[in-house]
Amino acid sequence: MITTLLFDFDGTLVDSEAVHFHCWDLVLAEYGVRYDELTFCQRYAGRPTLASAEDMVLEHGLQVNPLALAAKKNKLFAERAQNTLPPLMAYAETILRQAHQAGFTLALVTGSTRDEVEPILQGYQLSSLFSCIVCKDDVHHPKPHPEPYLMALEKLSVPAAQGIAIEDTHTGSRSAKDAGLVVAAVPNCHSQVQDFSHVDRRFDDLQQFYLWLLQQK
Question: Structure pTM?
C-alpha cells in the first residue's frame, strides 16, 4: 500500500528548467559559450549541477574549476529565486495539498541546493506540506545515485515498498528506482525524449498521476 509520495522538484513541481538555463547562459557567456534553450535542457535537465559543469569544462576546454563554475550558477539561481518565483508545474500545488489532506506523507527529494529550494517553497507556502526534504547539500552522492531517496526513506522510517517517487528525468527516476521505489515518470517538454524504460508508470501530468494513484487504494 502506498503511503508516501516522494517528489522531485525542478521540472516536476516547479517549472524552473528555463530559469536554470538562463542562469547557466549568463555564467557561460563569460567564457564565450552559448547553447540554445531546447538543446541545453534536453541535455542537462535533471543532471547534477557539478556534473553539468564538469561536462561543459571538458567539452569546451574552459579554464575554470568545475566547482567554481557550478557555484557561480547556484548562487545566481538562488538570488533569482529570492526575487522572482518560477511558476509551478500544472496541477502541482493542487495535487500537493490534496495528497497532504488525504493523509499521504509527502517528501521532497531534489538535486538542487537548499538555498535554491527554500525561497520557492516559502514563496508558495508549501514547506509545511513536506515531512522530509532532502537536498543536494544533504548527500555525498546526488542523483542518479540512490542515496537521496534512501536518505529520505530512512528519515521517514518508511520502507521503499510503501513509497512512490514522482520524477521528470532519467537521472532522477534512475535514482529512485535504484533505491527500490516504484517510480512514476511525468516528463516535461524538456525531458520527454529521455529514456524512461526503467520506470513503472508514465503520465502526461501530475493530475493524471494523482487520479491513477487514488484508483490504487
Answer: 0.86
